[in-house]
Amino acid sequence: MRGPCQSTTCTFNATKKCVLGNAPDECENRPLIDEGTEEDALQDDKGEPLDVSPPLSAGVLGGPVLEASNDELETLPASRTMGLPQLNTMMESRPTCLVGIVGLSGAGKTAVLVSAYLLLSKGMLEGFSYADSATLRAFEEISRATRSWRKGDPPEHITNHTTLTDSREAGFLHLRLRRDTDDRIFDILLPDLPGEWSRALIGRKDAARLEFLRSANVIWLMVDGRQFANTGRVAYARYRARLLIERLADLLGSHRPQLLIVPTWQDKAAFPEDEVIGLQQHGRNFGFEVDVAPIASFSWNDDMNPGQGIASLFSRSLAARPAPPDFWPETRPDSDDRKIAAFRRRP
Ligand SMILES: Nc1nc2c(ncn2[C@@H]2O[C@H](COP(=O)(O)OP(=O)(O)O)[C@@H](O)[C@H]2O)c(=O)[nH]1
Ligand SMILES: [Mg+2]
User: Fold this and answer.
1) Atom 14 of ligand 1: nearest residue by CA position
2) Domain coordinates of the chain in residue numbers?
3) Which pairs count as long-range contacts for 302-305, CB under 8 Å and 24+ apart, including other chains?
4) In the predicted model, is pLDDT for residue 119 greater than 70?
5) Looking at the DSSP assignment, which residues form a beta bridge with residue 175?
6) Pocket of ligand 1 contains residue 105 by CB under 6 Å
7) DSSP code per residue over 1-44
8) Which terminal residue of the chain has fewer beta carbons within 10 Å of its beta carbon, N or C?
9) Ligand positioned closest to the Cα atom of 171
10) Closest C-alpha to 146, from 121, 178, 177
11) Shortest-distance ligand to the CA of residue 159
12) CA–CA distance, 187 with 135 (Å, rounded to integer)
């Protein structure tokens, strides 16, 4: 057998035709190759022939890189919403702020998350900058619709109705923020729940799936601000907000995180002051310290910037976190202490 053509003027290697007209098997420019014998075949230590055939994919352009999937290889995280097990792992590994978000359908729960994400991505969430997120794909999915609409013709619903793949378990979004004033890093976990969950809570149904709220540092009770500024609708809106406060009190047992009432649609109508006082009083009856943080996640009003109030909502929520425990608290030695623990150097 002969090898490749060695002549620099011949194109045989590419065309399989000899420019000199030589028969390919007799051309002197193609040196003879020793094909070896059966005895030369590679053998292992025990004299068994070794399999030296090339791997399936070798040399096949576009062929699979691996012959089979390797479960031991690390994969990139899916970065969709986090479930409760992932949430627990994160909360155990570092200090986090868990925000509970409740409110009926259309109140603006998804919109506030979308608006915060868009503000952060433009570096416009006042006082904070984006440091990381374990759920970027989930943020991208809920924000997709906000990126395309016709100028001058804003849609009534800029976000999609929230549905969950698992109607029993909440999905959480994660944001890591850097606070400008002191460069401190905060991990925040926020659920995006369907309004039906809050409606069911009002109807005393399926409350168990909201039990994670017992671990929340702060709860945002989202209400559609337009309803409170409308004389025909305010009574019903107020009634439902109060019912939600009562149901939350039942659900939370003795736990009382800070409760922030978040009226949305401030670009359309300001939240009435007497409603603030009424809700605060009602919350106090159930042991809640109620505050009001009005926002406009989007704005169809030239006098108000979209995202108004959201930076303040975040900074107030982060301030609601309990102070970290003393690293090494000073205690007085006690006669009941074990000897070694009772031993102190007296000044
Ligand atoms: N202009 C304006 N629109 C808002 C505001 N909040 C919500 N929306 C609109 O209301 C729709 C329903 O809000 P959404 O967040 O999906 O309600 P959810 O059911 O509570 O999640 C959104 O698609 C937005 O178009 C706001 O503050 N201002
Ligand atoms: Mg929603």
Assistant:
1) 108
2) 1-32, 84-319
3) 304/266, 304/267
4) yes
5) 188
6) yes
7) -B-S---SS--HHHHS--TT---TTT-TTS-B-----GGGS-B-
8) C
9) 2
10) 121
11) 1
12) 12
The answer to whether 23 and 30 have CB atoms below 8 angstroms apart is no
Determine the residue of 157, 196, 310 to mutate for testing ligand 1's pocket, defined as the one with the most ligand atoms within 8 A of the Cβ atom.
Answer: 157
Percent of the residues in the chain that have a pLDDT greater than 90, as a whole number: 58
d(CA 192, ligand 1 centre) in Å: 13
pLDDT in tens, 212-265: 999 999 999 999 999 999 999 999 999 999 999 999 999 999 999 999 999 999
91-118 per-position pLDDT tens digit: 999 999 999 999 999 999 999 999 999 9
> Does 317 score more than 80 pLDDT?
yes
DSSP state of 195: H
- DSSP structural state of residue 323: P
- CB-ligand 1 contact for 227 (6 Å cutoff): no
In 209-222, which positions are buried (b, 16+ CB within 10 angstroms) versus exposed (e)? bbebbeebbbbbbb
How would you label 27-38 residue by residue, b for 16+ Cβ within 10 Å and e otherwise? Answer: bebbeeeeeeee
Give pTM, 2 decimals: 0.73
Q: Are 75 and 69 in contact (CB under 8 A)?
A: no
142 Cα to the center of ligand 1, angstroms: 12
- Domain covering 84-319, topology: Rossmann fold (3.40.50)
Q: Is 98 helix (H, G, I), strand (E, B) or coil?
A: strand
C-beta of 191 in contact with ligand 1 (< 6 A): no
What are φ and ψ of residue 36, in 5° steps? 75, 180
